[in-house]
Design goal:
Layout (H helix, E strand, L loop, with lengths): L2 H28 L41 E3 L11 E3 L7 E5 L10 H23 L5 E5 L3 H5 L6 E5 L9
Antiparallel strand pairs: 1-2, 1-3, 3-5, 4-5
Length: about 170
């Protein structure tokens, strides 16, 4: 073999190795990545159908008055000019304040059962609020769904505290 043939042989081997390395890198980099499974779809949104167990209503757009804790309001039982409870500014005159938001349990069959259960559920909230007030006479005004709405699965209630239990009394 001539010297030029040997020199060419020495150049061919590294060129082949370099070509092989480039081919392997190209395959690794250009090979399609494994397909990832799509994320599971979100669960269906809640509907207005009755729920099998007490749960907060999906939205506070309820078909009856409901007030978050700390909200102030005028109440028809305490005001001669309104027929439905409505929110008021707390820094102004108002009839009551919401102090709790319990959920009614399942299994109530009559309006009277709903009313008695609301009284019982609101009792601890009223006792705690009265203790914070440091005296005076306070009245609990629970409000929640009528039997019609309760039967449709609504369970949200508001426990209200007022300085009076009758219309046009000082607040």
């Amino acid at each position: 073999m001539t010297q030029s043939a040997r020199a060419a042989g020495r150049l061919v081997l590294p060129a082949l190795v370099l070509l092989l390395v480039v081919a392997v890198l190209a395959v690794v980099l250009l090979w399609p990545s494994p397909k990832h499974k799509a994320a599971a779809p979100p669960p269906p949104s809640p509907t207005a159908s009755p729920s099998p167990s007490p749960s907060p209503s999906p939205s506070k757009q309820l078909p009856y008055p409901w007030f978050p804790v700390g909200a102030c309001l005028d109440h028809p039982k305490l005001s001669p000019v309104i027929t439905v409870a409505r929110p008021q500014q707390c820094d102004g005159q108002h009839d009551a304040e919401s102090i709790g938001n319990p959920l009614l349990p399942d299994g109530l069959l009559k309006e009277s059962q709903i009313a008695l259960t609301l009284e019982r559920l609101c009792q601890p909230y009223a006792a705690a609020a009265e203790a914070k007030q440091g005296g005076g006479t306070w009245f609990s005004l629970p409000t929640g769904p009528s039997l019609k709405y309760y039967s449709q699965g609504y369970r949200d209630a508001s426990c209200l505290l007022a300085a009076s239990d009758r219309e046009a009394a000082p607040s």
